[in-house]
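Posting here for the record, re: 6-O-phosphono-beta-D-glucopyranose.
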Amino acid sequence: EKGGYATFMEKEINEQPHAVGDTLLGRTDDEGRLVLDQTELSEDDLRSIDKIVIIACGTAAYAGMVAKYAIEHWTRIPVEVELAHEFRYRDPVIDEQTLVVSISQSGETMDTLMAVRHARELGARTLSICNTHGSTIPRESDAVLYTHAGPEIAVASTKAFLAQITASYVLGLYLAQLRGGTYADEAQSVMKELQGMPAKIEELLGRMGRVKEIARFMADTRSVLFLGRHVGYPVAMEGALKLKELAYIHAEGFAAGELKHGPIALIDAGQPVFIVVPSPDTAHGLHGKVVSNIQEIRARGARTIVIAEDGDEEVVPFADEVIRIPQSSPLLAPLLSVVPLQVFALHLSTAKGLDVDQPRNLAKSVTVE
Ligand code: BG6
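Prediction output follows.
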């Protein structure tokens, strides 16, 4: 049942090209327009949306953070991302022109379900991005966009995360087309690039030998930091979460720009830091800013493990290790940059002799608040 792999997690990491590809299947109609799964929302309802609020927990919430960057860029609709349990018990400013998008692999997470119910009571439109057909959250939502990652057994989410990001890109591109505007034309070409992502993920999975070795060397490490910027910020947070969940190591993800406002004080000799470097094409010179961050922490003794695109040579002088990912446009890069972080957590957990699929104290689906 593990398809020749030692753990479900390893199997699921390797299924990620399919999770992304299958989530994209059947998403375009004859005219090349994007289509949703079941929906009670009319195109007019969706045209009238003036705000999107994404609610989720855990890994799904990091998919939501990635979605914010992409959806705002393509649609110019303001997007907020909030942990479902925080959203539920405050007074959010939402109405019938708000689209509340929940993201949940299981569709049964009680915190997320309660937040969806709260949103409906307040009159918002609700859309569920979910991996489990017929589960409670999609049943209680106005519209559904199913991810097709297939069943995810390992407690720590991997392929569902990539599928969630993919589905939120699809949602963003759909809304961009529906509403016209600057990025409607770009939607077609981004869709085309998305179709090519499974092959890039496949290629990347074939390059993970060095990551595995690094993980083995680091079995005694007590703390690991992760830095990222732009869409790399949620990827850094997800890398840290994976390590906490699987290897019980203190791990923290930071926005790279925040480094100088506090976290840089944590850097001392030998501190391992993963840096998710933005694509050199990222707007506003963010690539150069992150390269400076790597230089700063290296000068203070950090051991820098850099995740950078093929051909990005600027990082090399400041990197103890460079992990290469295929090139992509900046907003799509999380589908690639998170993969080495998943593989790292998997192999560190294995090196420590821990239960990869069933980490202590965690459940796959938390059905209590
Ligand atoms: C947690 C799981 O409890 O729930 C995480 O351990 C998961 O892996 C989170 O990301 C949210 O779950 P779901 O099913 O709502 O995506």
